[in-house]
Each structure stands twice: as structure tokens, then as C-alpha cells.
Amino acid sequence: MLRFFNNFFYVTLVVSFLSNAYVFSAEPTKVSPDFFEKEVQPILQAHCFSCHGAEKKVKGGLDMSSREALLKGGDNGAVVSIEKPDSSIMVDAIRHGERKMPPKGKLPSSQIEILEKWIKAGVPYSAGKVVAKHHGPPKVDAEARNFWSYKPVKNPAIPKVKNQAWVKNPIDAFILSKLEQNELTPALPAEKTALLRRLYFNVIGLPPTFEEVESFLRDDSPDAYEKRVDNLLNSRHYGEHWARHWLDLVRYAETNSFERDGIKPNAWKYRDYVIKSFNSDKPYNEFIKEQLAGDELEKITRDSLVATAYFRLGIWDDEPADRDLAYFDQLDDIVSTTGQTFLGTTIGCARCHDHKIDPFPQKDYYRFMAFFHGINSYGNGPASQRVVDGDLQDLKGVINPGRKPDIKKLQELEIKAQEHERLSNDINRQIGRIEDDFRAKLPGGQNDDFKQDIHKPILFEKHLGKLVTVEEYKRWKDLTAKREELKKTRPLIRETSLAVIEQGPKARETFILTRGMPAAKGDKVEPGFPSVMVSENIPELKIPEQDPTARSSGRRKVVADWIASDSNPLTARVMANRLWQFQFGRGIVRSSSNFGYMGTPPTHPELLDYLASQLVANGWKLKPIQRMILTSNAFKMGSQVSPQAAMKDPENDLLSHFDLRRLTAEELRDSILGVSGNLNLKKVDGPSIYPVIPREVLAGQSVPGSGWGKSTPEEAASRSVFVFVKRSLALPILQVFDAPDPDSPCASRFTTTQPAQALALINSEFAGEQAKILAADVAKKSSASPADKVSEILRRTLQRQPKPDEIERGTTFVKDSMNKDSLNEEDAIRRFCLIAFSLNEFIFLN
Amino acid sequence: MKNFCGNTRREFIWQTGAGFTGVALAGMLEDSFFKAQAAQPFNPLAPKKPHHNPKATSVIFLYMYGGPSHMDTFDYKPAMNGMDGKTIEVKTFGRGGKKNSGRIVEPRWKFKQYGQSGKWVSDLFPNLAKHVDDISFIHSMTADSPIHGSAMIQMNTGKVQSGAPCMGSWVNYGLGSENANMPGFVVMLDPRGGPISGAKNWSSGYMPAQYEGTLFRSQGSPILDLSRRADMTDPQQRRILDTLSQYNAQHALQNKDYSALNARIASYELAYRMQSSAPEATDISNESQKTQSLYGMDNPKTAVFGRQCLLARRLVERGVRFIQLYSGGAHNDDNWDAHGDLEKNHNLHAGETDQPIAGLLTDLKQRGLLNSTLIIWGGEFGRQPTAEYAKGSGRDHNAYGFTMWMAGGGIKGGTTVGTTDELGSKAVEKPFHVKNLHATVLDRMGLDPERLTYFYGGLDQKLVGVEGAEPIKEIMA
Is the minimum CB–CB distance between B468 and chain A shorter than 8 Å? Predict the structure, then answer.
């Protein structure tokens, strides 16, 4: 690291009168008294103090933690010139001129401006106060609590702007006011086609059809756009799309990783729970409580129990070398995931020692962990599966809180119920297959009649020996009889699911573990919230006394209530920021799971607080916030970058335009299936699907193909959110377009560009297959000319009327392929479909 | 605090959506570590400057999946001679759990001394033994787990839990790739099957997918989706790409502010070039008969691994950074996991690999490549001195002490470091952890294991873990 500092101080710049500088400074820029504390200090804290704080050893001898020390400079002299602020070494360094600070990457331009302004103002500091103390045990004091994200959310005043006409709702006022301050103007609105595509993808993850775009273009009613926003938010596809965002955050997978990478039975029920929650606009605070303590709430429901599968989604070594350590690894996974996902907090980093940067002493980690210390280790079968539904009367005391049932008997019931469920599912599947086959052959009216059970045997018999074989029909009769039989023997417990299970009313004792080692027990601790997030004088937490027969310690309810409370400084901010992130491609805080010192500060702190306040004010419902974002003029901006913006704000911190974005892996796969006319939207829930994985990829397994089931082609063409998530085997088309590794939480996805993506879209079996389907679908209008077909393919993929030269180019391709490459027309069109899947206009959103 | 002041948090910024405009990237990339590529659209595999002068530029990791027995191969234990069948007190920990005593299985092969260094090597490796003066043996390796799944993940990623990037990913993250037309991290599997945990063993974990290991088949089309569909010719594919690029160029003109679009256009040409460069790399028809037999390709027993070793050399010549070859696949005796009949198992796997590895070392040396290529040999752990079952010679797993060796760039040949006790049951002198091995590899490649960090989950992650680890100085030239 020394290298950077040699660099930094290489050029000797003689700055005289240092000690007198303050006196001599002529007319410094005027700043408000709280400028340092509000604007400068957070930047220094986040980016400078880790090396230039008041440590025994500071880098390059430069201590920036007091005004005096800063003016003294470093080993090679002064870094700030009060007289000639512009030629200060520090200015050069933060601009990444000859020297480069911070070395890990240039600060956003807005922060550079703040620091320059500060230097011009003569580096005013808090009265001689040394602010940087992040080495050794981090101090949790008033100052730490004063960090922006730990302070209570304050509903800010809506700023006044000059161009009031642009303000459709308060979001716009916040965006515009910053732009105006920086003499920038918002981009012109996006074209309607681009806007509708953006809206569809952002809300439901699917493209509009050409017809939907056309109807939007024709619709000149004043609420044409708003109507579409509402329709999309009410579409069930909204939940399917937004659930995927959440599943990334909670490291959702359906297997355990490690040697066997065994299946987590019923994990998909959690996925369905998330979809359902988004679609019903479940208040976010309830969503939190159900996942963290769905088994400890006053009102326990089937869904609230399924939600606790949250705790069971992590990796699990069924054969660990060190069993104690493996148990704490599971708890660590829970602490880290919970901290990052709900609180934007990296408290997980304090497992082995005090957090090096953020104000989390190791003790806080273990106090936080103690909330979860009643949870039993993950295990196959009843250790992680529990009754979520059943005859509540007869099972009184079994799934009600506060009672401890006969565990052995309960487990027997649970196993019986699982077996029963498996059998019923199996029979239903078989019946479904026979019925689907048959129904597809029925003429219209009968096809409709067949939906009703009572008509089924009549129709089968009517077409016996023609549309259905005698054997098939007999099989159908046997199966339905068996199904009836099964209904009669249904156990009291009807359904089990992956869920959290504790050891009983008493949690385990929790000790601080030196260096995270289970054998090195330190002081005993009781459950507690991260101290920086609560006020100094908070009384010792009281966990309500549990009934001796209770199934759990009641601790998780306490932490869930705290996280989900209106006054938690982080929860609403973190979630409001995520909503923004998935609409604008980046959060107001770009590091959306890290709101700490090492995170990136908010580009629009007031807007973030406004959205957070609105989230709480709307009863934690997400759709009103989504609607507000989607109907703002900010969301409707085009993606063109003005020369001024390119120069002043190259990273678009100020949001002067809408950044172009690539489709996510799932959006891309679903779009390809969709435009090919092959996407199966009938699947809305249930066990996951297994699209075909090429043999070459299966060859990487020790037993090729193991753990990857078979789906019918129709099932396999369902939306990507239903694809089975196996930790050691990813579906190539999703993986290559940056679907995350599910072993740990993913707050925002990479957008890589790599040749493997090109290969996947041109050469893969998947692309080839879909091109064939699309070509065949287009060819159904057999009279159409190649030009018409090209045109139709472009219309479907781009959702707009193609221009004559675009049709011409495609037609030339088809003709050349036929004449010069001796392909028949169908094959030539098929090749053109491959081109269409690779069009940047198809893959990117303006 | 030095770890927080390094080349970190960059990826953090890519993934938070800023990494989109070329301009933005140029702004962010201006530190000396990444400066080389600032002018171009961001390519995470573009060559990067190492931290210090590298001793090696490529790695070939010969992975002996299943865990070869050290006392039957390179860790000579004369004290065990004549002890076969004796029950002794010894602490072991394998898949059969922890035990305090067991029946000794005397090494089944004779040992001889070789080379100037006089290194003892068993009859399992008569050819490889001739190279001992180029090899440095570490007899005191230890790992945290004696169970394949977690131990393999640790050997590949440093952690016993899955989700972290592999060593090959780290090396490519730190150095980039010298040949844009080839993947930077290539994995070749035993045709009998992949290792357990499959893709976790070449995963890039929380890093972007570019750093993931690419599976390379030694026969046929080497990479998934690399070859054109069977019914497509080269001119036909060219026509597709040309037409596509016209459409995309038109689109890019309307979106001039976004260099990502151009990067995507360029990636199709790169893919096209890979279609010829990767098969070229695996086409050995120009290799002389003499070379082929050097690798044992004329013997059916050694032909498969011989071909992979030859391909490894060809990949090194083409600038591939990290190549991992698996000897052993699938389950049971298809790999080195000798629980049943030790002799049968090790005769098979050593027999398949001895000549090819010796050939690789000879060939690299004669081409002047050994100096810049770091060779690693070993599995996820070793084996116990005692029998696993009441009958037979099978040995259970042993992570308390085992042998790995390194050769080539920056390695002091003809040396041995560390010892196990006289039975080989555990490391006693200078024990080294898997992390020390990883630190050595990074160091030899010009990377400082303490400074090669990647910001994820609120921490500057390292291959060698938060606590760090020293390279093994004793074997470094």
C-alpha cells in the first residue's frame, strides 16, 4: 500500500505559512456552521479515516482527524493550502490527478465537490474534535449514532424548484432540486414505446406484446399510462418478478450444497409465499415478522409458518468436520443474511472480532445472534419440516404457541402427512397428464366442458378408442378412485413445509466466542439489538416469559418486532431504497445491503427519507410507493445523456436521465420464451421445474444428472422464477447472464458482458430450440413472404413496427441464406430468429 | 488497516449499477492497479499489473481427487516396515469418525532414492521420481476437514463452506488473462465423472461469472456452446454475425452514451474468435509422435491424462492463467479414495498419471516453460496409516497431515519441507495449512495474498481468509 503514498507525496509542493494559514486566508468560501458535520464528516469517515485517522500509525504520516493535524500535513509536507486551495495536494488527489485518493476508487463527483468546497472554506472543523476512532473496538457513542443511517427517519420538506411544471409528484421535486442546484436539466421523456417496455419489465419482468404497445400509442386518454401502471401492479406476474429480487436477498435455493447437495423439501412453498406476498401487497412489516417469527406471532397462519423457511434456505453440511463450528456457521449465515437483508448492516463481520469499520463491537454480534440461538440445526426431515396446516381443532396444542406437544407423536404425524402429500401430488400429476393430453384433442365446446369433473367420464367414454385409448381411460379411472380413497384417509395434518424449529421454550446460552471459535467461550451475553441502532439509555431487553410447554423461546418475535417497528431507522430506508434500486437500476444508496461507513452514501438522502416515511405512512404497503415511483416524471425520463451531464455527472449520481439497462437473466430467458410464443404462463405455483441442461454441463457432476429432475417441455417453458435452484448445478442460460450464486445473499447483480453469452444466444440448444419454435409460429401464416416474416419477428422482439431498412436487411439475410447458403426458407427464418434474440434493442432497455 | 486501503470495493461498484457508462468506468478505474484498462469498456479479464515481480505466470494444478496416500507415495515411513497388521494407539479422524487406535497397513510399495536430492519415492511413480530435483515436497500439509465435500471446497477456495471464489478465480481477478480469445481459468475433468459438489469446485462464488472456471473437454468441442450447431457452416455463421452487427450498430448510434452496447457487439466477435482459437488449442495433430509418447499417449492406460497434460501445456503457451486437471472422478475407486483395496486403487490412479506428469515436466522444461509455470500436485487430504476396516488395506481420510508438491516457477527444486510423525498420522514439524499453500501460489504469481482483496458482504475478502496466511518460504526460490 506504500506505493500509493509514495505516489501521493512524490511531488513536493512547498506550502509556506502553514501555521499562519488560517489567519492569512483571504476570503474563504462561506459555508453553513453545520457544513462540516453534515456534509464533510461522513465522507471523511467513509473514505479517509481508515488510513488517515488518529491512529498510532497513520498512512504517510497524514492524520486528518483534526483541523490542526490536517493542516500539519503528512511525511512529505502539507496537503492543504488555505491560500491557494485549488493547488492543494488534497484537491489533486481527490480528483485523481497525479495522486489518487482514495486509492480504491475515485469519489463520486458530488462528494469531490463537497470536499473542494470545504477546502476553499478553510477546512472548518468541529471545534478541535477528533472524530476518527475506528480502530480497536469501535466506539458506539453519540457520534456513531449520529451517522446518517442510524439517525431516525425524518420526513423532509419537499424542496421548492424553479421548473414546477416538471414536478408530477414529490419524487420529482427531490430529483429536480438537485439537478437545478447543479445547473442540469432532466432528460426529455422517453419515447412511449421505450417507456412501456421499461414499465413492463420493471413491474412484471416480461415485455409487452406488440399489440399492447400499439394500443398504448393510440390511447390518448390522460390516464393512459397510469392505467397501465395499475394493471401491471395488479397482475400476478408482478409478484413473480419481484419475488425473484427478494429470493436473491435471502440466498434462496432448494438444495444444501456440499457433497450430496441434497434437496430441501418444500422450499418452493417459501418461493410461492413470497410471490403471494408481493401480489397481495402484504405490508412489509408483516412480511418481516412472518419470516423472522411466523411461528411466534399472536396469529399463526399456514403462510406465516411457511415464511419461516427463511431460516432454512442457507447452505448446510450434513457431514461437517466440526459439528459445533458448523452449527455456529448456520447461525452466522442467519445473522449475516438478516443484518444485510433487513437492516442494510454488515454486523455479520463482527463474528471473530470487533468490526473494523462499522460501530459493531463483537459483543453486539453475539447479542444479536442470541435472538436466534433457540433454533435447531438444519436437518433433513422433521428437523426442518413442520406442520403448517391441519385440523386446528384436533391439533390444539400442537401448532398453537405456548404448548409443547408430544414431539414424537407429532413427528410421526408429520412424516405420515408428508407421505400422504407426496402420494396425492404424484397421483394428481398422473391424472393431470392424462387429462391434458385428452383435452388438447377435444373440440372447443367440449374442451370447455371438460373443466368440470362431472363431464370428464362422459367425454372420455364418448371418445373412447378414438381420442383416448381404453387403457388410458382405465388408468384414469383407477387413479381417480385412488385419489378419492386418499382423500378419506387424509391425516389430521394436511400439509408440512420447510420451517424453523427451536429446541423448546428455552434458548441456548450465548457466549462471546473468541475469534469465533466455539471452544473459546468468553462472557455470557443476553439478546440485544445492535447498540448503535438504539438509544444509549435503552433499558435491558426483557424477553417475555415463555410457557414451559412452548415450542420456541419467543426471542425471534422480539427482534422481528423491533426490526419491523415504524421507528427503526434502517428498515424502511433499506426497503425504500430497494424499491428504488429495482426501478432505476441502482439504489439511492448504491450499496443497498450496506448502509454503514463502508457503504456508499445516499445520492439523494432527503428523497430516501421521504420514501421511507411514505412507506411507513402507507402502512408499509409497497404498491403505493411503487406507483409513486412509476408515475413520477423521473421514472419517465429518456436515457439520452446531455453533454453537460456527461461532463459534470458522468456517473449519473444526480439522475439527470434514466440509465440504460440490460435485461436480467430471468427477464431474458422469459422474453425469449415469450416472443417465441412458447412461454407457459399457466404455472403459477407448486414444485419447481427442470428445464433441460446440456449433457456437457451435467458431466461436471460426480453422478451426471443426479438431483435434476425431468419436466415436460410445456412445464419446462414456465417462467424462470420457477426453475429449480440447485446449488451445485445452475441452468446455463441463467448462469451465463449473471444469475447469482445462491450460497450467499446478493443485493445487486452483476451485469457482465462475456463471449459465453454470445455463444449461448447463437449456438446453444436453448436458443436453437426457441428459434425453431418462433420460426414455426411465424410460418403459420404460410402465405406470408419472407419480408412479412422478418417484420413479424422484429415486431415481436422489439415490440415496435420495424423500419423499412430493418426489414430490408433481414430480408436480404433470408434471401442470401437461401441463395448463397442453400438453406430452405424455414431454416433461413430460423437463423434470423437467432439474430433477433441477440439484438441489443431486445436485450437492453432504454 | 491496510486491507481497507487496497484495490477493493471496485466490484462493489460494478454491481451497484454504476458500471454502465464507459465514462463512469474511466473515472472509477483510475488507480494504478486497474489503470491499464480504463480507456476501454470494462473487461474484468484485461491484463492487470501484479503486486510484485511474478515468478510464474501460469498455474497447472494437478488435482488428485479422492486424496492420495502420502505414506504410499512420497512421504517415506521406514518405521512402518514390518508393522503390518499391528494394532497401535493413534488418533485418527476420517469419514469413519474419530478413533484412538487401529491396525497398521504397511505401505504397499517399495521406496527408492532419486536424484541429487536423494528423495525417497515409492514405486508408484517411477517416471515422476526422475524429476525430484525440480520438485519441492510439502509433507506437513493440514486441512480443516477430512470429508471430501468440504475438504475439496477448501482446497479450491480456502473455506470449508461453499460460496467463495476458487483459487483460479482469484488469480484471474488479480492478473487478468493474457489471451482474450481463451478463458483464463480452465478445468478438465476425469472422463469417469466430475468431482463431488460438481461446479462448486470451479465456482467464482460472489465474484462475477467471468472468473468462473470454464469446463474444457479434451475431446470434441472443448467448451459448452462453442461449436456451431451441426447444421451451420462458418460462412453461414458469419452471415448471422454480420447482419447482427449491422442491426446493433444502428441501435448503438441511437444510444451513443452507452459503451456497454459496443462491448456487447465486440463480445460476439470475441466469441467467434474463440470458436477457432479454443479448438486450435485442443488440436494436437501437429504435436510430434515423440511428444505424444512423452506424455504416454501411446499407452491406453495413460492416454487420457496424457492428453490432458499435453493440452495443459498448450494452454499455458496460449496464455491461460490457471489450469486444473482432475485425476479421478465420480465415486469410490474411480478416484483416489482408497477405502477398500489400496493397492488396486493406487496402482490404477498412479499408473494413469505417472508418465503423463513426468512428460509434462520434461516437456515444459525443454521448452523453457517450467520457469514460468507453477505446478501443484495433490488432493484434498491424505490417508491414515491404519486400516479403515477389520480386513483389507483400505485407508480412511486424513486431514491431520498429508503431502503436496510444487514445481516450476519460483519453486526451489529438490527440497522437502515439514514432516509427519513416523506413521504419517499427523504433521509434526512445520505444519502448513491449505491457506499457506494458497498464499504461496499467489505470491509466486506476483500477488500479495494480504492485498489481493475483494469487497463483499461488508468485508475485504481474501483467498487466505481474514486472518491471512504466510507463503511457504522454505520452498520458494
Answer: no
The count of structural domains within chain A is 3
- Sorted by sequence, the CB contacts under 8 Å of residue B145 that are 6+ apart come out as A320, A321, A322, B151, B154, B160, B381, B399
Say if A52 falls within a structural domain. yes
CA distance A53 to chain B (A): 10
- Helix H or strand E segment including A386: strand A385-390
Give the C-alpha distances (Å, rounded to integers) separating A526 from A138, A145, A370, B106, B247: 20, 22, 6, 54, 64
Residue B444 in domain: yes
Supply angle C-alpha B387, B389, B392, rounded to 5: 70
Residue B386 lies in a domain: yes
User: What is the pTM (predicted TM-score) of this model?
Assistant: 0.82
Mutation target vs B (from A762, A813, A829; most B CBs, 10 A cutoff)? A762
> Per the domain annotation, does B49 fall within a domain?
no
Can you tell me whether residue B374 is helix, strand or coil?
Answer: strand
In a domain, A579, yes or no: no
Range of the domain at B275: 221-283
* CA dihedral sign of residues B52, B55, B58, B62: negative
Q: Do B4 and A748 touch (CB under 8 A)?
A: no
Tally of domains in chain B: 3
- DSSP code at position B282: H
Q: Which residues of A touch B15 (CB under 8 A)?
A: 747-750
Does residue B192 lie within any of the structural domains?
no
- Number of CB pairs, chain A paired with chain B, less than 8 A apart: 351
Compare CB distances from B197 to A259, A594, A762 and report the shortest one's residue: A259
Chain A residues inside the 8 Å CB shell of B233: 821
**A-chain residues within 8 Å CB-CB of B12?**
591
User: Are residues B155 and B116 both part of a single domain?
Assistant: yes
Is the distance from CB of B284 to CB of B337 less than 8 angstroms?
no
Classified as helix, coil or strand, B428 is strand
If you search the block for the grid coordinates 403505493, which residue do you land on?
A624
Are residues A1 and B455, on separate chains, in Cβ contact within 8 Å?
no
State how far residue B397 is from chain A, nearest Cα, in angstroms: 12
Domain boundary among A102, A132, A162: A132
> Would you write out chain B's pLDDT as a tens digit for each of its 477 residues?
222 222 233 333 443 333 333 223 333 333 333 333 333 345 678 889 999 999 999 999 999 999 999 999 999 999 999 999 999 999 999 999 999 999 999 999 999 999 999 999 999 999 999 999 999 999 999 999 999 999 999 999 999 999 999 999 999 999 998 888 899 999 999 999 999 999 999 999 999 888 999 999 877 788 999 999 888 999 999 999 999 999 999 999 999 888 889 889 999 999 999 999 999 999 999 999 999 999 999 999 999 999 999 999 999 999 999 999 999 999 999 999 999 999 999 999 999 999 999 999 999 999 999 999 999 999 999 999 999 999 999 999 999 999 999 999 999 999 999 999 999 999 999 999 999 999 999 999 999 999 999 988 888 899 999 888 999 999 999
Using the Cβ of B39 and the Cβ atoms of chain A, whether some distance falls under 8 Å is answered with no
The interface residues of chain B toward chain A in range 361-420, judged by CB-CB distance below 8 A, are 399
B291 and B174 in a common domain = yes
The terminus-to-terminus CA distance of chain A in angstroms comes to 41
For B149, name the nearest residue in chain A, comparing CA atoms only. A259
Query: In which domain, by residue range, is A469 found?
Result: 385-498
B8, B63, B244, B255: best mutation site toward chain A, by most A Cβ within 10 Å?
B244
Determine the residue among A651, A764, A791 to mutate to test chain B binding: the one whose Cβ has the most chain B Cβ atoms within 10 Å.
Answer: A651
